[in-house]
Amino acid sequence: MTENPMLVNPYSVKKVQEETYDTFTLELEPGKGVQAPSFAPGQFNMLYVFGVGEVPISISGDPATPEMLVHTTRAVGTVTNAMRKLHRGDLIGVRGPFGTSWPVEEAKGHDVVIVTGGIGLPPLRPSVYHLLSKTQDYGKLVLLYGARTPEDIVYGREIDQWHKRPDFSVDVTVDRATGQWRGNVGVVTTLIPKANFDPANTIAMIVGPEIMMRFTLPELQKRGVPDENIYISMERNMKCGFGFCGHCQFGPFFVCKDGPVFRYDRVKPFFGKGEI
Ligand SMILES: Cc1cc2nc3c(=O)[nH]c(=O)nc-3n(C[C@H](O)[C@H](O)[C@H](O)COP(=O)(O)OP(=O)(O)OC[C@H]3O[C@@H](n4cnc5c(N)ncnc54)[C@H](O)[C@@H]3O)c2cc1C
Ligand code: FES
């Protein structure tokens, strides 16, 4: 975390990339006198669209190059729609990085299975970059990704590149096929039974809507992945981002400080119980 978590640092938009009809990626560079902090895969920033508001967005770039800050956002409401209207050279405020990270160190020597749906891939992309840069430290690396339709797939070109790697097993499915889609059809959980990994020696990382995570957990458990090897990332509305305001309460936890990445066995009693 930065020294003063309330301090909003100005960044400028270097590039805007349309990912899908409602999702875009901003590449940001630090403003004058701002030193971009390092970040761990899974952490998020509070992004402030000046005069509109502030929202938590995961960092989706490469942790090896923190000076190039990357965020991929789906435009769903007031702030994210305003963010979508930013252009190259515009300013945006950044606080962070905040929160816990994916267990990329603990996963050394294990197979790693990433299961994600929709806009859940951006929060996991820093992990993918890290794992792919150190494949010798890990066993099998597997990415299972589900999107509503082919038009909802983010990072399509990058996924094609990942597909070509012999050391990365990537499987994508869509709920509903449209256009030229000839790939898997079905929810992401249908990919789990046939995925190639050693369940007892696997670390699983999951991000998606809570309903998707609720169905993914039993599928991994059926394969024999122990609860203590499963990590999930939670979302709650946030205000401060660093454990001060209580806005993001989740059972006895604050998602901004104790999460967003949680080891599943630690939050099991509270998971799936609605807004507790
Ligand atoms: C730790 C953390 C990391 C996150 N990382 C990302 C990320 O990398 N990319 C990203 O796009 N989002 C991410 N989010 C979600 C993002 O913060 C919200 O989408 C955002 O706060 C919405 O703000 P808004 O002002 O645009 O929408 P609001 O005006 O607050 O909401 C407008 C409408 O959208 C609905 N809504 C709000 N949030 C969502 C949502 N997530 N999905 C669907 N509908 C929603 C509301 O129910 C409401 O009806 C993250 C959230 C957390 C807590
Ligand atoms: S957002 Fe304030 S405590 Fe989490």
Question: Quick check: average pLDDT?
Answer: 95
Order of helices and strands: EEEEEHEEHEHEEEHEEEHEH
Number of strands: 15
Please state the overall shape, judged from the principal axes of the Cα atoms: globular
The kinds of small molecule bound in this structure are: flavin-adenine dinucleotide, FE2/S2 (inorganic) cluster
> Which structural class do the helices and strands define?
alpha/beta
Strand content is: 25-35%
N-end to C-end Cα span: 26 Å
Q: Classify the helix fraction into a percent range.
A: 10-25%
Question: Count the helices. How many?
Answer: 6
The main sheet comes to: 7 strands, mixed
Radius of gyration: 18 Å
Strand order of the largest sheet: 10-9-8-7-11-12-15
Model regions low in confidence, pLDDT < 50 over at least 5 residues: none
Quick structural gist:
With 276 residues, the chain is of the alpha/beta class. It has helices spanning 78-84, 121-133, 156-163, 210-223, 255-258, 264-267, and strands at residues 9-18, 23-30, 44-49, 53-58, 69-74, 91-98, 111-117, 141-147, 169-174, 184-185, 202-207, 230-233, 249-250, 253-254, 261-263.
What would you say this structure looks like, in words?
The protein has 276 residues and is an alpha/beta fold. Helix content is 18%, strand content 30%. The chain is built from 6 helices and 15 strands. The site of FE2/S2 (inorganic) cluster has 12 residues, from loops.
